[in-house]
Amino acid sequence: MKKHDLRIERTRYMLKNALIDLLEEKNVESITINMLSEKAMINRVTFYSHYKDLTDMLEKLAIETVNTVRENLSAYEDDSHNWNNLINFLTHVQKESRLYKLILVSNKLPGFRNEVLNIIETKIYNGIEQSKDTKNKDIKLWYESSAIIGTIVCWLKEDMPYTPKYLVEKISEIHFSKF
C-alpha cells in the first residue's frame, strides 16, 4: 500500500489553486508553466516532477473531478428520488465552487463541463429507466436534467445563497408538486 506524502498533496493542491486563479483571469491557452509555477510559489522543476505539461495536469484534474462527481452521485441510480446524493454533490460543488464556476458557468474547461453534464444526465436517465411509468421517458430526461443542471449553474452564478440541503428541499418540493 502506498503511503500518502503530504508534501506531494500540498504541492498538487497549490498547483490546482494556482491554475484556478489563473483561469479566473485568462484562457487556458494563455497560461504557461512559468505563470503557474510562480502563482503556486514553486519552481518549474517541481511542476515537472508532478506533471509532464499543462495538458497532463488538466487531464489529471479532469479525471479527479469526474471521479469525485461520480462518487457523490453514486447511489442516484439506485433510487431516482434519493435527494441525499444531490445534497452530497452540491456540498462538494460548494466546497469546490471556484472550480465548478469555471467548469459550469464560464465554460473555460469545456471538456470538463461535458463530462460533468454527461454524468449528471446518466444518473438521471438511470433513475428514470427504473421508474414504473414508461411514458415519455425522453421528455422526462430532458426536463429533469435541464432543471437540475440549470439550477446548479444559477446557484453558482448567484454565489450559492442557499445551503445545499435547502436547495435540494426546494427542488424536491417543485419536483413533486403539481403545477
Automatic annotation (TrEMBL):
What Gene Ontology molecular function terms does this protein carry? DNA binding
Q: Which UniProt keywords apply?
A: DNA-binding
According to the entry, DNA is bound by residues in 32-51
Q: Spell out the Pfam families in the cross-references.
A: TetR_C_8 (PF14278)
Q: What is this protein's name?
A: TetR/AcrR family transcriptional regulator
According to its UniProt entry, this protein's organism is Staphylococcus equorum
* TM ranges: none
What InterPro entries does the annotation carry?
Answer: Homeodomain-like_sf (IPR009057), HTH-type_Tx_Regulator (IPR050624), HTH_TetR (IPR001647), TetR_C_Firmicutes (IPR039532)
**Domain HTH tetR-type per the UniProt entry, residue ranges:** 9-69
